[in-house]
Amino acid sequence: MEPHLTIGELARRSGVAPSGLRYYESLGLIAAERSAGNQRRYARSMLRRVAFIRTASRVGLTLERIADALATLPEGRTPTKKDWSRLSRSWRPLLDERIAELERLRDDLDSCIGCGCLSLQRCRLQNPDDRAAALGPGPRYLEGDSPGDAERAAG
Amino acid sequence: MEPHLTIGELARRSGVAPSGLRYYESLGLIAAERSAGNQRRYARSMLRRVAFIRTASRVGLTLERIADALATLPEGRTPTKKDWSRLSRSWRPLLDERIAELERLRDDLDSCIGCGCLSLQRCRLQNPDDRAAALGPGPRYLEGDSPGDAERAAG
DNA sequence: GCTCGACCTCGAGCGCACTTGAACTTACAG
DNA sequence: CTGTAAGTTCAAGTGCGCTCGAGGTCGAGC
To answer: Which residues of A are less than 8 Å from B15 in CB distance?
Structure first.
């Protein structure tokens, strides 16, 4: 049991490819010491940090927001379980909101299946104000922005 | 009440920018007649078609899959409410699956909050086989691929 | 000492859903 | 007839989360 991991070992054990780990590093999400020959050597605590990143990503956070979260960890010491726990807890409302939105969509869909209307005037499935438009390109609600964000942006 | 819509009118009424409508057309999702001066003129039924595309997109389908779905509409006549209803109904399982996955994630999160472990060995929050990796780059589960897809791809 | 797999950096490319910009034309109101 | 808002095409750019390739170096076993 070595004290440090090579990038390949961390990759295998975290499920993130070496290229992905280097990318995370380029964004400041993780860090590594270097061997005499300039190769990355990871502390074992990086395993948990990468696990956190992966899970946060599955929850729907962008890497930028994950970086923000990681920045709130105490400096100078390895984070404790309590630290990780605090961060994980903060995802809960986000998940709840995303689930709620999909459920709304599903229920609206149910109430529309009978009519097949998709009417811009009447059907709740439609989003006439296109609130999401203010937030930029790409699929939005499904990628982490909440309707709440859209409303605030539309302010 | 004109029989046809300009691209600007369709954009305002559908919530999709003109550039987006041209993009949809480039993918074969919508079509338009042309004025004497080569400007697009949309039949009113396009409103419903665009509404369908937007909603399907919110549900999490890629534009490619939406195109596939639209291809099953009868040719030679304007689709009826029944046609749209049939397509909408097909989203239901997809939505259910996406909701279920987020709920699983939330429940796993709950069971982990106490420990803060995020352990690759023990914690259900982790996804050790990284099933999603087979499907290519980018956030996956949250963008429309289902875990089922991943399992089939890994098979 | 040599080999060979794993590592390094840097820039480019990808997939998706669009948007933007340049350079130009059309439609309609006054 | 003229001004201008709205339309046209085409190529390129954006944002996110990576991956890939080229060209070179490192490290461990024989």
So the answer is: 127-130, 133
- Residue A4, classified by CB atoms within 10 Å of its CB into exposed (0-12), middle (13-18) or buried (19+), is middle
Among A59, A56, A65, which residue's Cα sits nearest to residue A84? A56
Q: What is the pTM of this model?
A: 0.74
Q: Integer distance in angstroms from CA A15 to C1' D20?
A: 18
Residues in A touching B130 (Cβ below 8 Å)? 15
Calculate ∠ Cα B144-B146-B150, nearest 5°: 120
CATH fold for domain A4-95: Multidrug-efflux Transporter Regulator; Chain: A; Domain 2 (1.10.1660)
What are the backbone angles phi and psi of residue A80, rounded to the nearest 5°?
Answer: -90, 170
> pLDDT of A34-82, one tens digit each?
999 999 999 999 999 999 999 899 888 999 999 999 999 998 888 888 8
